[in-house]
Amino acid sequence: MKTFIAILLIALSSSALADGRKLAVPDNPLWQTECGSCHMAYPPQLLTAANWRQMMKGLDSHFGANATLDAKEGVEILAFLERYAARDQRYSANTQRITDTAWFQREHRELSNSVWTHAKVKSRANCTACHVTAERGDWSEHSIRMPDGRRWE
Amino acid sequence: MTAKKIGVAILFIVGAGIAYAETPSSLIAGYTAEASRATPGFAPSAERGQSVFMRKWGVSKTMPSCATCHNDQPTAEGKHVVTSKRIAPLSPAVNQKRFTDLAKVEKWFGRNCKEVVGRECSAAEKADFIQFVSKGSQI
């Protein structure tokens, strides 16, 4: 019985994460500025600590961009990312792309291929093209606007 | 001056220092001094700065020029060419936060020059660049 409840709790907590309400983090101006200048500051919860460590080692060639930090900034930001990182392997990708994780693929499985290449989206990593309130921490489904302007029903 | 007044004055200076440690002109002056050591008599030129800004350097296919992300008009909003994120105008004529923090300016010259120009920008190029974007329009 106890194991059953434990399993149920784990199942409930991971679906609560999937519904996007658990993606908030406390204010961290350094992370917000440094990791939010070229794209939105992606929630630390969406990759594992091992993924973040790997990424932070190669900021000089970061997905085709030069995102180098000084050593002190790098250490502080990595500590923050690790602290809120996912523990579940569904949030892991050896490319260090959130968009390559099993979680992301499953969550977005109902989207058609053409929507990702839409001129207003261009990249799957352009979360805020659809999740228009995500930078305020609101990822909820009713706040989604598809590139054609429609809501997601 | 009483000790209290001196205290207030110091606080004021420190406070102002945090808000605007540098200004576009103090940065131009600093880079000009550095450039003058290699090129005596160096004077910053907005015209040369414009060509740093507009030139297609032929190093990166996705980011051929500074204007690729910062817009042809530095007073207008730019857009990151890969991520589509909006970038606030680079010109201090319309965006007072620009060129007020040496560490930030050095960080981005460092990253963007390596990507676009394929090397560090020189002190002379940096002085010219700030001179140009501060003008607020194309020449």
CATH fold name of chain B: Cytochrome Bc1 Complex, Chain D, domain 2
- Shape, per Cα inertia axes of chain A: globular
Average of pLDDT of chain B: 89
Strand content of chain A: under 5%
Envelope shape of chain B: globular
- Taking pLDDT < 50 over at least 5 consecutive residues as the criterion, the unreliable ranges of chain B are 7-18
How would you describe this structure to a colleague?
The complex is a heterodimer of chains A (153) and B (139). Chain A is mainly alpha-helical and 153 residues long. Chain A has one domain. Helices cover 37% and strands 0% of the residues of chain A. Chain A has helices at residues 2-18, 29-35, 49-57, 71-84, 102-107, 113-116. In chain A, helix 3 (49-57) packs antiparallel against helix 4. By secondary structure, chain B is an all-alpha fold. Chain B has one domain (3-135): Cytochrome Bc1 Complex, Chain D, domain 2, CATH 1.10.760.10. Helix content of chain B is 53%, strand content 3%. Chain B is built from 6 helices and 2 strands; from the N terminus they run ααααββαα. Chain B has helices spanning 3-19, 24-38, 46-54, 67-70, 102-116, 123-135; strands at residues 78-79, 86-87. Chain B has a two-stranded antiparallel ribbon with strand order 1-2. In chain B, strand 1 and strand 2 form a beta hairpin. In chain B, helix 2 (24-38) runs antiparallel to helix 6. The interface between A and B is medium-sized, with 15 and 11 residues.
Q: Layout of helices and strands, plus pairs?
A:
The complex is a heterodimer of chains A (153) and B (139).
Chain A lengths: L1 H17 L10 H7 L13 H9 L13 H14 L17 H6 L5 H4 L37
Helix pairs in contact in A: 3-4
Chain B lengths: L2 H17 L4 H15 L7 H9 L12 H4 L7 E2 L6 E2 L14 H15 L6 H13 L4
Antiparallel strand pairs in B: 1-2
